[in-house]
Amino acid sequence: MNIVSRTEWGAQEPQGPKIPLPTPDLFLHHDTANFTAVDETSERKHMLLLERTGKQRFGSTVSYSLVVFPSGRVYEGAGVGRKGTHTANHNSTGHGVVVVGNFETQTVPQRTVDLLRQLHADGITAGWWTGQWTPHRAVKATACPGKNLFARLADLNAPHTPPKEDDAMTSAQEAQLAEVRKRIDHANSEIRTVKQLIVDLTAKLDKSHPGSN
To answer: Whole domain around residue 64: which residue ranges?
Structure first.
């Protein structure tokens, strides 16, 4: 998964100290922003806003380890393997991922659900964390990550099984592939017929002009 780095979006504040990997905890947040833009310029401005907020509240950079936008892009915040300021009493043993938006009122796009599932699976593979998604509200009296995102928790934590190669194509795609193979076989048959005609004509010419060069 591609993650927009701190350098790319222009982070100004230093990262926190390193924390041991993999972490047992992975916390899910929303930032309550009324944000629906999908362009990179708006996203980078929002990252700087999150960083200013982190600086004002905690004297740090972006509070969250990673930031997920409606566009499907993921940005590096405090960073993987770095102490953030996202979840009190758990910042040294967990990562915090924030989804930009207010999910008390906004619905959660399926694209966001799929992205969070993929991020969770990729993080386990990379050795970043071992735990499932834990909502912020599980460890603090808060509505975070919003009732609508909380309602998708079972989907987010469902086992992630990559599609098998045999199941990768749809039935329509398989039918198209079969048709292409049929046309290739027909073309090869036509080529063999033409080659045989050339051989036969060459033989007849040789018989009608013996001794010619």
So the answer is: 3-162
